[in-house]
Design brief:
By secondary structure, the protein is α/β, with parallel strands linked by helices. It is built from 8 helices and 10 strands. The protein is globular, with a radius of gyration of 19 Å.
């Protein structure tokens, strides 16, 4: 949300944060500590609030504020209008966490901080936060999409095409790897956040893009976030919309990439 006016009372300062958009409970955070705060707006006009633990100032050589602003505006073009009141980041010195998390409007970054991580977590504002999964088995709709966003970012930067990222991920694992034995469209409790959900989920999207073409694919992404904005959706919903937008029957593609174990033929 956004910081409402603070006030002093009885030797204490009170801060009120107001979130006006729907929010899944796992996306809320309260982070306490000393932070260097920078506020402003992105070039596209979205309010931005970045809080960085002073211990981590200039660490990792990542401009968290700049990348957050740039990625928010770019994803707004690709995925549809930014869905929340404010964008931003919380960078906290908590290496024991070992991960970053897409909390709503201000992702939390700990030991994992990089440009690629920032664009991943910001993509979750659309895929996972605004459009939330109907059930945990649909989690590839969060993680596959955010991973694919990293591939799109690399494509935009000119470092590697999304097709190149697909080939790298596909070729990195032999056919007998356990990676290919996870059913991405219905992972189980212990494999719900396995790398296959992220990487094979992203591969599914690239396979879809190459099947239906760029025009339909980049029409599909904002159509998806608009249709299910501030709500829940599942894999069947996505397949149905992909078929509607593309005018193609796509059951075979999704069956192969999401619901069949083994390494698919390219």
């Amino acid at each position: 949300g956004r910081l409402a006016p603070t006030y002093d009372k009885g030797g204490s300062t009170y801060a009120h944060w107001r979130a006006e958009r729907p929010m899944a409970s796992y996306l809320a955070t309260a982070t306490l500590g000393k932070f260097d705060v920078r506020t402003g707006t992105t070039p596209g006009g979205t309010p931005i609030y970045v809080a960085i633990d002073p211990v981590l100032a200039n660490s990792n050589n990542v401009d968290v504020y700049g990348v957050t602003a740039e990625a928010t505006d770019y994803w707004s073009q690709v995925f549809g209008p930014y869905p929340f009141e404010e964008t931003g980041a919380i960078v906290d010195d908590m290496p024991e966490a070992g991960f970053s998390l897409e909390v709503q409007s201000k992702p939390v970054y700990s030991a994992v901080r990089s440009e690629s991580t920032i664009v991943h977590e910001l993509a979750h504002q659309w895929f996972g936060d605004s459009v939330s999964v109907a059930q945990w088995k649909d989690i590839w709709l969060n993680e596959g999409f955010a991973t694919y966003a990293q591939w799109l970012w690399a494509e935009r930067q000119g470092t590697r095409s999304a097709h190149g990222s697909f080939l790298a991920a596909y070729g990195a694992r032999p056919a007998n790897s356990a990676f290919w034995q996870i059913t991405v469209g219905d992972p189980q409790r212990d494999t719900m956040f396995a790398s296959a959900v992220y990487q094979r989920g992203a591969m599914t999207l690239q396979a879809l893009r190459e099947r239906i073409g760029d025009t339909a694919f980049f029409e599909l992404l904002p159509a998806w976030t608009k249709l299910h904005r501030y709500g829940n959706a599942n894999t069947a919903d996505f397949i149905g919309l992909a078929e509607k937008v593309s005018g193609q029957q796509l059951d075979d593609l999704f069956h192969t990439w999401l619901f069949t174990t083994g390494k698919p033929a390219r």
